[in-house]
């Protein structure tokens, strides 16, 4: 316990609860946040969320019309009861709930607030951290790691300092330089023979690619002709007269 007290950022005080579990911290956090209790809006309370009363038939008699008018709520009488004609933003977040607003919500049976546990800190394997850390995914970690490696490789290439991150890029750049020299000279090796052949006669590659494209076109033409022939045969089969 002395180790925990030395590292814990906040001393327990006020309405604080401690949850001990061997389960995954993510599962424990989610379970704690799921369990909330609906609560009515009491006069004088600070609204933790916006309170919106939806358009509805209240079921109240016309004698309550003055009450709604005092709150600037548009109503009409429908089937002998008061009906709210449009949604009303009754209480804004951070505002104090008035007595009239609290009474209206109570009359409508609305419990707009919810109370539950709020996870402040997590202690796991000797480390104390914010619950926001639990929302970091493996994809985000991999993305940050890849970005860092790319930055290291860029700096290493710029200053000419070899690192594990820059070695693949250095090898590729070196091969490009060697290939450029080989193309301009009589030096040759298997990796540049195709490049040299293309530069020597680009039309040969165009001719080699043409039959493949032509073959595909011929196949499409054959398929179209076959479909057209089948349609004609079908038409011939159906081409009889009712008077024959």
Give structural notes:
49% of the residues lie in helices and 13% in strands. The chain has 8 helices and 9 strands. The protein has helices spanning 2-7, 25-34, 65-70, 99-108, 138-159, 167-184, 190-200, 202-237; strands spanning 36-39, 51-53, 56-57, 75-78, 81-84, 88-91, 113-116, 122-124, 127-129. β4 (75-78) and β5 form a beta hairpin. It is elongated and about 105 Å long.
How would you sum up this structure in a few lines?
Helix content is about 50%, strand content about 15%. The protein is α+β, with helices and mostly antiparallel strands and about 240 residues long.
Features:
244 residues; alpha+beta; three-stranded antiparallel beta sheet
Approximate shape? elongated
Q: Mind telling me the C-alpha Rg?
A: 38 Å
Averaged pLDDT, please?
Answer: 80
Number of helical stretches of at least 4 residues:
8
Q: Secondary structure elements and their pairing?
A:
Elements: H1 2-7, H2 25-34, E1 36-39, E2 51-53, E3 56-57, H3 65-70, E4 75-78, E5 81-84, E6 88-91, H4 99-108, E7 113-116, E8 122-124, E9 127-129, H5 138-159, H6 167-184, H7 190-200, H8 202-237
Antiparallel strand pairs: 1-7, 2-6, 3-5, 4-5, 8-9
Helix pairs in contact: 7-8
């Amino acid at each position: 316990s002395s180790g925990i007290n030395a590292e814990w950022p906040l001393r327990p005080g006020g309405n604080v609860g401690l949850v001990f579990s061997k389960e995954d911290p993510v599962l424990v956090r989610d379970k704690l946040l799921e369990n909330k209790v609906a609560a009515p809006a009491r006069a004088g309370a600070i609204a933790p969320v916006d309170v919106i009363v939806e358009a509805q038939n209240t079921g109240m008699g016309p004698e309550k019309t003055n009450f709604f008018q005092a709150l600037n709520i548009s109503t009409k009488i429908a089937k002998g009861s008061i009906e709210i004609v449009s949604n009303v933003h009754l209480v804004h977040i951070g505002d104090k709930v008035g007595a009239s607003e609290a009474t209206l919500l109570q009359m409508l049976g609305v419990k707009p607030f919810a109370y539950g546990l709020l996870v402040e800190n997590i202690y796991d394997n000797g480390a104390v951290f914010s619950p926001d850390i639990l929302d970091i995914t493996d994809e985000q970690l991999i993305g940050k790691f890849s970005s860092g490696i790319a930055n290291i490789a860029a700096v290493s290439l710029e200053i000419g300092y070899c690192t594990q991150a820059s070695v693949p890029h250095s090898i590729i750049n070196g091969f490009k330089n060697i290939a450029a020299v080989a193309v301009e000279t009589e030096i040759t090796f298997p990796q540049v023979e195709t490049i040299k052949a293309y530069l020597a006669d680009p039309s040969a590659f165009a001719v080699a690619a043409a039959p493949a494209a032509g073959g595909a076109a011929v196949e499409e033409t054959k398929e179209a002709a076959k479909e057209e022939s089948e349609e004609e045969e079908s038409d011939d089969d159906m081409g009889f007269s009712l008077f024959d």
